Amino acid sequence: MALQEPKTLAMQINHRRVEFPEGVTVLRAAELNGIKIPSLCSHKDLSAFGSCRMCMVEIEGMRGYPLACDTRAQEGMKVLTESVRLRELRIEILKLLLSEHPSSCLLCDESDDCKEYQGTIRKTGVSTGCRFCPNDHQCELQDLVEELGIKDIDYPIYYRGLEPEQDDPFYDRDYNICVLCGRCVRMCQEVRGTSVLAFSWRGRKAKIGTAFDRSHVQAGCEFCGACVDICPTGALADKASKWDGKPDGFITTTCPFCAVGCQLDVAHKDGRLSSAKAALDPEINDGQICVKGRFCMPEATHHFTRARKPMVRKGRYFRESTWEEAIHAVAAAISTVQPADIAMLVSPDLSCEGLFSAGWFADSVIPGASLDTSARDLLPGGAQLWKAFFSKPISLKDISRCDTILSVGLDTRFHFSIVGVQIRRAIAKGAKLIAVDARSGNLTRYTDDWLQPMPGTEGALLVALAAAISGETPDSERAATSSGVAPEKIAHAVKMLASGHDIAVLVGPQAIQNGGPAVLAAMASLLKSPSVRLVPFYFGANSRGVLELGMLDRTPSFGIEQLRSGSVHPKVLYLVGEVPFSKRPDCDFLVVQDIYLPPFDADVFLPAASFAEAKGTLINIEGRLQEASQIESFPDGMRTGFARPDWWTFTELAAAVKVSPPALTSLEAVQAAISTAFPGIPAKADRMPRVSPEAFPPGVLKAEVTSLNGSVGKFRLVPSPAGFTHRGINLVAKVEGLAMLALEEGIRMNPADLKTLGIPSGSEAEVCVTGTTTKAIAISDAECPAGCAYFTVPTTCGGIEHRTGMQALFKHTTIVGADIAPATGSSTQVGG
Amino acid sequence: MNTKQLDEARRVAKVEWARLSDNTEPLIYFGTGTCGIAAGAADARQAAEDYLKETGKSARIIEVGCIGPCYLEPLMDVKMPGLPRISYSNVTPEHARRILSSFFQDNEITPFHLAGSHGEETLDKVPRFFDMPMLKPQVRVVLRNCGIIDPDDIGHCLALDGYSAIAKCLTSKPEDVLDIVKRSGLRGRGGAGFPTWKKWSFCRSAPGDQRYLICNADEGDPGAFMNRSLIEGDPHALLEGMLIAAYTIGASKGIVYIRAEYPLAITRLKRAIGLMRELNLLGKNILGSDFSFDISIKEGAGAFVCGEETALIASIEGKRGMPRTRPPFPAIEGLWGKPTIINNVETLSVLASIVRNGPEWYSQWGTETSKGTKTFSLVGKVRRTGLIEVPLGTTLRQVVFDIGGGTAKPFKAVQSGGPSGGCLSAEFLDLPMDYESLASVGSIMGSGGLIVVDADTCIVDTAKYFLTFTRHESCGKCVPCRVGTMHLVELLEKICAGKAEMSDLDKIDRLAKVIKEGSLCALGGTAPNPVLSSMKYFRGEFLDHIVNRRCPAAVCRDLVVYRVIPGKCTGCQRCVSVCPTNAISGPRSEPHNLDPEKCIKCRSCYEVCRFDAIAGDAIVIEPR
Predict the structure, then answer these.
(1) Which of A555, A587, B447, B589 sits in a 20 to 30 Å window from A798, CA-based?
(2) Exposure b/e, A143-152, CB count within 10 A at least 16 = b
(3) Which of these, B533, B371, B373, B370, lies nearest to B437 by C-alpha position?
(4) CATH topology (fold) of A8-82
(5) Residue of B nearest to A88 (CA)
(6) With 70 as the cut, is the pLDDT of residue B225 above it?
(7) Topology, domain A715-828
(8) What is the ipTM of this complex?
(9) What residues of B are in the A interface, CB distance below 8 Å?
């Protein structure tokens, strides 16, 4: 159905006839005709508010001074945007506003000189520009003051004297600078649908805050930074780039942290990546973003432990070296062993170019070498199945158009945040949400239909619900007995799903990894329902790229599972952006190619270029081939480092081992080669969604309900990821703020269970799984269902130095039974 | 229940009601509105109960609402068999015992604290209660049942024709009811005076299947208590009015938005709503008709701005009580985006009387443009304070001097309309109180607060008080109101401290205009009224503060000194004992000495010094 074109109407603004589409406000109509009406609180994405009073206009036939932002333009209206009285009122009101705003940066006598001479070289100390507000020269209030020509305020100044709020991660809030325009509040409520921010107090004490002045972490903030970006002043400021000043420019790129592939506008200052904000890309994220994309980029690439130089082991020493030396060391090691003894591991966070070059290297340079990737864990069930999942178009934007949404094991607070926005948008339009989650998450807040199965039994429930969607009779009874969800709750959900016309089934990575084959089977069974949009969420920014470049079709002799368990011994192990080990894996020669050093000894370290330093393409969950731009291009140097893109390293290595396959000498050459080898993938990023041609061969999977029969122990031991991964490093260790959002290490259990076991929260507990016993801190968590113990696994083992106590547990990637008891011999309270 | 059954219930109620007039058992009435209880009615009632228990006499105690004259509270009425109901005023527990013993033991009507008798009958040496100077000039339409009926007994209400108006409405078309309201000339009693019928007809013609009726009982003006007293005394008047309004506009859901600070009114409303449900006066198919309507109560958390209709709606919707720009007006797009009528308690409460007696009966009172009667809470330095109801167009003089009995010190001004209204000087005493006249002199009718001030009150201080109130109650949304009122208070404080200059008056003027023209809602739009009107009518007093650094009313602390008059002081030491800073010293029986250095001007000594033997106070405050 084509949208009806709005009618064009006409009115008079400042005695000039202007045309405008029906339904817009006077402010917008003026804007469309190039007439600027001053305003602070209005914003095109938000509803009208009317607090700043700047956009007052005169309209014939209307009393007083109506607001342009909140008055609908009508045919034949006569509007005056400028008059002597309007100007007076605006100036007076702005002066009032400034009287409670620190205004040294606005009304300084020296401001002109300051601006003009700041770049001058001087010998003596003079003012180098005051920094009272992080938004100096990027402040809408400042612009307005300049526009209205205010030079002094004849009101006494009342500084609010509020304590700056700096205890939450990622952004500081200084409400002394706030002009109470309410943009952040409206953004949080109307666009994000989270309602964390609100007005509190009244009169002169009125301010922005959370309910009951809780911290933002507690209040459920997603740290998406939308409020920071929409703030017209410096009241909300990004901690990392706060004092960077006005950026030199913005570069649009693709977020490297997950498979959604949000488009970002990355600010750069003096050639360095400064901060990132969401791009107004209508295809995917439409100006919205999650905590990782908004706040983690600068620290992830600029962290002080960033490894920028090649390193080579010589005897007892592991020393910085030249690229030449490092390449030769690797080439020498490769040449001395049989290719069959070489194992490579690649990360699903690499760009397509990196992945392809790695594959090319393994196939053409050292043919016979093994190559595997952790995407095999992230996309369980085999390449065939996932190609089938991707054989139907996926559109994240369309989730907001669905009338029924089933989310399984999905928490969109910090991961896939923009999906949460779309879900809430759908709910606002009247859609029904059914959330299946063992723990309460940020989606369970928005639904009355929260089905809480025992962890690991999501599959049983999903099988029944999938049957309902497909129009079959579900075996609700069996689902109820296996999952522990009340039968009437299942019946209600079944009824809602059966009556849905446009159903989105969103399955989170937790459910896919913990739920076992039953979840995958149920998902596969949904593929034939035309009314269902199935979206399987997975970690790894380019996991779909891994799949489409055929890397999961390989049958490596050194599989990731075997390498992790230490059951194989490759002579040379080459880790490309992938460190799934907490201690040195069993091999003779270890090569690591990454952006940070691994937490164990390697023989050669090759510094890889980060997302900021090299160009590349990524394939997102919708199958779009998107470009990640290069932000920084410093020449090599001791400070700037010697990092190189992954494909470059492979080309150099190929040259060093004196094999001469068709050379991939430039990024374009790699891209052309990809396009030749995989005709479905274009040579240039086209950002078009695509589907896999493969259809799903039926009957591959059998719906098996996970049961813990046979395993010992009373508790379900559930692995729950504690961190945020990128290229084998846990971002928590690099990005300070993320540590506050990540789960703390330990065993989380229901308080009632802890009480029965006699384990005080915060003390050590013994976890016994099939004979091995591990000690871990027990944490009381009311959100955990009784009978379960969630243990925090780092999303990858490498890159974190402090998680050692629970290592024995990390090998359990699925739910197992465990016995838990108070730790013997030690009653030490930890923490507190 | 249908109309017939209601008539039957009314017949029974009338019989019961008649038994209260020719009673065989003595009746004791107590006015236990919030005002009565605050004045000590509960204690007096307890004393009466104790008395009855001790003496073994039997009598029935009936609690009624406030009858109006607050200065007489607590009121106790005694109705002995064969005698009319006789009111006693300012009854303490001891008084109650004494009055009751004279009735029960001595069998005589004591003149002690006698206020007057009710009913047609006249008794020797007993004045008629409603002939009192405060009550005689009043016309009680809305307040007709207040203080007369037991608000918790729906029978009393039925006996006095309660719910006969809605029964009448249900037999006619909503258009006819609208026409009655139109012909009555009723205008909104919340302050702005918008014709009620017009607002209703906007709502009726707005598209939509769901309409809401909201009663605005968020009475927040300092010194105003009309709505509270009315709901406490006769909740049924309001509820019947809501039925009529809902029937006319076609609303199926009504909400009373009432301040949580009115617990007694809420209790009584809830009780009354429960009783109505029992009689099928609320719920589905009311009185057997097609009309279904229900009322719920929403307690406001005490923000003054929530009396503004868009803020009120936001508050009901669970949002922060902040106004939004109008249009769209709530009559078109209100609660949950549906057409909504918001009427004041008094507007709704008067409807039943209008329908019962006809629009012409109601429009006999009032002026050309302002018809009917209006309740006012008459407070301040006036001799007789209380809740009054007078025809619109009554002059200020009649209200302040005839009803209120004037002021002890020379009359200075009346503040009408609370913090949104203006301060009117003596020259306007003959101004008829109607919407247009009050507006023409820079004040407003408002919801009916009348605060009388006399020569002992500083007009700058009064203006400062109201501005401080609005500064505190501003929701903080728009800049002119939030910041502007703040600066206005600061400027007034400067004047009160004697630190102002003449240019500050211009600043006030300029700022006030910005606030008036620039604010989003009426709270800000009217906030400067008290200061603008007082500056206009009492410019001399402002100038005195600024030029002479003098407060003629001797109120502004920084501009007065306290001093002992040696000739009058007897050295009784009372002031010495209350002075918190030991500023007063001196041996007993000798004139005291007041050290101005130590004096913090707390006024304590001035208040305790009542040396009647020597005429006048020995401690004086005088302008510096």
Answers:
(1) A555
(2) ebbeeeebee
(3) B370
(4) Ubiquitin-like (UB roll) (3.10.20)
(5) B514
(6) yes
(7) Barwin-like endoglucanases (2.40.40)
(8) 0.89
(9) 303, 305, 320, 322, 324-325, 471-480, 482-487, 490, 507, 510-511, 514, 517-520
